Amino acid sequence: MDFVWTNTVIMILAFIGLYWLLSKYAFGPLMSVMEKRRELIQEQITTAEQNRTQAEQLLSEQRQQLDQARKDAYEIIEQSKTTSTKQATEIINTAKAEATRLKEEATKDIESEKNKAIASLRGEVGELSVKIASKIIEKQVDSKSQEQLVNQYLKEVGGRP
């Protein structure tokens, strides 16, 4: 085979022509699309980084709010415990005071009823004594009949409610 210079020159000229056409009509738009794609990817990376930073800030804020809510809840619980303890103490003290008052009133009522009963009993004893004395004066009797008379009146007194 012989080496043909003309075929080689034509192929080189065809390659140069094809390269020139490709660079003028294909490589420019292709490079432009590639550059736009690179810029889009860079923007997405930047946006993702910003979103991550915002998410970290929000997470930090939420943790702080959660901690504050826990502190507030603990304070409310402690305040409720203190209030309930105070109220329980007040209720107990009020109940004790009321019980003491009722006991004193009951004691006064008992004492009053006792005094009334004693006064009533004294009246009845006095009345019976007068009746016995009047019966004795009506009858001048010996000691045996006097004893029977006293026993009779004691039975009458014992039968009364």
Structure in words:
With 161 residues, the protein is mainly alpha-helical. It has a domain at 5-115. The protein contains two helices and no strands. The radius of gyration is 62 Å and the shape is rod-shaped.
Secondary structure layout:
Blueprint: H1 5-138, H2 143-159
Summarize the structure.
The protein is mainly alpha-helical and 161 residues long. The protein has a domain at 5-115. Helix content is 94%, strand content 0%.
Question: Could you name the key traits of this structure?
Answer:
0% strand, 2 helices, single chain, mainly alpha
- Characterize the quaternary organization of these chains: single chain
Number of strands: 0
Q: What's the rounded overall pLDDT mean?
A: 86
Contiguous helical run count: 2
Please state roughly what percent of the residues sit in beta strands, choosing from under 5%, 5-15%, 15-25%, 25-35%, 35-45% or over 45%. under 5%
How does the overall form come out from the CA principal axes? rod-shaped
Query: What is the straight-line distance between the termini?
Result: 163 Å
Order of helices and strands: HH
The radius of gyration is 62 Å
Query: What can be said about the biggest beta sheet?
Result: none
Global structural class: mainly alpha
